[in-house]
Write a structure and sequence with these properties.
Layout lengths: L11 H9 L8 H17 L1 H17 L8 H38 L17 H8 L2 H27 L1 H5 L6 H42 L3 H12 L2 H22 L5 E4 L4 E6 L9 E7 H13 L3 E4 L1 H10 L11 H18 L1
Parallel strand pairs: 1-4
Antiparallel strand pairs: 1-2, 2-3
């Protein structure tokens, strides 16, 4: 009844497949919050450098280029110089932004490169699915997050400006340089405060995204069984394959019995077929062995092919337990097997 309910944690294979498709737990707010915070922090760290570069731009424009003749060559040189100086001015912020963007994404999902999200998928333009996404619980949660962020940021801006109200009233009497300094100071404070608040909210959003991801990734017991069948194969089919392999191995073993020199029995429960060729073998080798029905079959084939059958309970048990098919007997059995083979060769000599 409950086999279809997704109550089980996702298997490693399901997680890997999801990751390869680009489906990972990720908050889009976290990189943006980190970039905002560190961008404003870079103004504090590189403020002196940026001020010097900005002064160089104005100095070169007013002292050098305004005195030049208006020509295509001079205008091109002016724009080229302005582009170079602007890049030098913005390089620290651009570098910090790129590094923080890469780091914040790596912090969430690690190293991941996949082109699956870029593939054309017609279900993405399905109006029914689009309507479901618009009126889904995720949309409601995203809307509530946006309202919460705007409310908190609005309160921070209001409280910060309210705390500076006495200075705001005095701006009309201050020189232009002091006004710029005050505006820059207030902007820097707001940027740092808002950045920190957004980072905290983004961390909560990341935990929520991770929870939603794990929830959507859950599997039912039937899903796990189906995945196991796809990965390992159907147990019934594997069992049939193993059974067929056993029958083939048994058939090959029975085909070797007529080549044996002797079959040592228990007499009823064990049977071991031995062969010794002094030219090609260093020691007698087990060609076949078995118990109960297989032992009976080995003795039957031996009888049909006039193979000597000899009863030796301890030796039969020891050979069956210690020596695998196709292996030579161990040294501690040489004496017992040699006596058996000597008897067999003696019987065959008399018969001949």
């Amino acid at each position: 009844m409950f086999a279809g309910e997704k109550t089980e944690q996702a298997t490693p294979k399901k997680r890997q497949e999801s990751r390869e498709k680009g489906q990972v737990a990720k908050s889009m707010d976290l990189p943006a919050a980190f970039i905002l915070f560190f961008a404003f922090l870079s103004f504090y760290l590189f403020g002196g450098y940026m001020k010097d570069q900005l002064m160089d731009v104005f100095r070169s424009v007013f002292n050098d280029y305004l005195l030049l003749d208006l020509s295509i060559e001079n205008v091109s040189s002016l724009f080229k110089q302005l582009v170079i100086q602007s890049l030098l001015l913005l390089t620290p912020i651009l570098l910090i932004t790129v590094v923080i963007a890469i780091f914040s994404n790596y912090l969430q999902i690690g190293f991941l490169m996949t082109g699956d999200p870029l593939k054309m998928k017609f279900n993405k333009i399905n109006p029914i699915e689009g309507a479901k996404n618009i009126f889904s619980m995720r949309t409601v949660v995203d809307f509530m997050k946006s309202v919460l962020k705007m409310s908190i940021i609005g309160y921070v801006v209001y409280s910060t400006l309210w705390g500076e109200k006495s200075h705001l009233m005095d701006l009309a009497r201050l020189p232009l340089e002091n006004i710029f300094l005050f505006a820059g100071s207030v902007t820097f404070k707001l940027g740092i405060k808002i950045g920190l608040i957004l980072i905290v909210l983004a961390l909560f959003d990341y935990m929520y995204q991770k929870y939603e991801f794990e929830k959507n990734l859950r599997m039912s017991k039937q899903d796990i069984k189906d995945e196991y069948k796809k990965t390992e194969g159907d147990p019934l089919i594997k069992g049939k394959i193993r059974e067929k392999q056993r029958r083939m191995a048994m058939q090959r073993m029975m085909q070797e019995v007529p080549k044996a020199d002797v079959v040592i029995t228990n007499p009823t429960h064990f049977a071991v077929a031995l062969k010794y060729d002094s030219k090609n073998m260093q020691a007698p080798t087990v060609l076949a062995k078995g118990t109960d029905y297989i032992a009976l079959k080995i003795k039957q084939i031996a009888k049909e092919n006039s193979i000597v059958t000899m009863e030796n309970k301890p030796l039969a048990r020891a050979l069956y337990a210690q020596v695998e098919i196709g292996e030579a007997i161990p040294a501690d059995m040489f004496q017992a097997v040699a006596e058996v083979l000597a008897f067999v060769y003696k019987v065959k000599g008399k018969a001949n």
